[in-house]
Amino acid sequence: EVQLVESGGGLIQPGGSLRLSCAASGFTLSSYWMHWVRQDPGKGLVWVSRIDTDETSTNYADSVKGRFTISRDNAKNTLYLQMNSLRAEDTAVYYCVRGYYGLDVWGQGTTVTVSS
Amino acid sequence: DIQMTQSPSSLSASVGDRVTITCRASQGIRNDLGWYQQKPGKAPKRLIYAASNLQSGVPSRFSGSASGTEFTLTISSLQPEDFATYYCLQHSSYPWTFGQGTKVEIK
C-alpha cells in the first residue's frame, strides 16, 4: 500500500525552528517529485514547496522562501521540510504529497502551531 | 501567479441531485488541473486528474471537463458520502494554486 506518514509537528515559539519528516512506503520515493502543502486552521489548501527526484531543483511559495528548505533522503525513503524563523501565520496542518500529474497521494498531515 | 477562482463557495443539495462546481484560471493552464475532495479532519483525496481523467477507485458519478480556462467538476447523483469540501488545483506553473474550495452541504 502506498503510504506517506508525516511527523515532527508541534508547538513552537515565534522565531523558532522545526523539521518535518515524511516517511514513504509502498513505492520508490526516488522516482517521484515530492511536495509539501499546508492548510491553515479552518481554511483552504496552500502549496508550499516542491523538490525533484535528485534534489537538483526546488520551488517555494513566496510566503516561505528563504525560511523553509525542502530536502530528501532517497536511501531512507524520507522527505523533509526544515522550517526556520517561524511565524504565527505558519500555523497549519502540513501535508506531504507525492507528485504525479499534479498531487496524487497525500499523507495524513502533521500539525504545526506557532505561538508564544 | 495564476489565480484559480472557484464557485460557488458553498452549496446545499439533496441526495440524488446533480452538482456542478467550477474553477476559472486567470490564464491558460492547458489541462493541468486536478479536483480534490476533503472531509473534516482528513487529508484531501484526488478525484480527477488532467482535467477530465477519473482517478482509479473513484466512483463514475464524478466527472471533470474543461473549456478554455474554465474547468468543471460534476457529481451526477449526489450520495451521502459526497458531502465534503472540494478543491481544484492548477499545476501548470509555480507557485501551484488551489481554488478557495466549495463546501457541499446537505439540504
Summary of the model, kept short:
The complex is a heterodimer of chains A (116) and B (107). Chain A is built from no helices and eleven strands. Chain A is mostly beta strands.
Give your account of this protein's structure:
The complex is a heterodimer of chains A (116) and B (107). Chain A has 116 residues and is mainly beta. Chain A contains no helices and 11 strands. In chain A, strands 2, 4, 5, 6, 9, 10 and 11 form a 7-stranded mixed beta sheet that branches. Chain A is globular, with a radius of gyration of 13 Å. Chain A starts with a strand and ends with a strand. In chain A, 39% of the residues are buried. The mean pLDDT of chain A is 97. With 107 residues, chain B is mostly beta strands. In chain B, the strands form 2 sheets. In chain B, strands 2, 4, 5, 6, 9, 10 and 11 form a 7-stranded mixed beta sheet that branches. In chain B, strands 1-3-8-7 form a 4-stranded antiparallel beta sheet, with no helix packed on it. The radius of gyration of chain B is 13 Å and the shape is globular. The model of chain B has no long low-confidence stretch (mean pLDDT 97). Chain A binds chain B through residues 35, 44-47, 50, 59-62, 95, 101-104, 106-109, and chain B through 32-34, 36, 38, 42-46, 49-50, 53, 55, 87, 89, 91, 94-101.
Form type of chain B: globular
Q: Show the largest interface.
A: A-B, 19 and 25 residues
Summarize the main sheet of chain B. 7 strands, mixed
Distance between the termini of chain A: 39 Å
Strand pairing plus helix content of chain B: what structural class?
Answer: mainly beta
Question: What is the element string of chain A, with H for helices and E for strands?
Answer: EEEEEEEEEEE
Largest sheet of chain A: 7 strands, mixed
Total strand count of chain B, please? 11
Helix share, percent of chain A? under 10%
Overall strand count of chain A: 11
Q: What is the molecular shape of chain A?
A: globular
How many angstroms separate the termini of chain B? Answer: 36 Å
Q: Low-confidence spans of chain B: pLDDT under 50, at least 5 residues?
A: none
Structural category of chain A is: mainly beta
Tally of separate helices of chain B: 0
Element order, helices and strands of chain B?
Answer: EEEEEEEEEEE
Number of helices of chain A: 0
How would you classify the quaternary structure? heterodimer
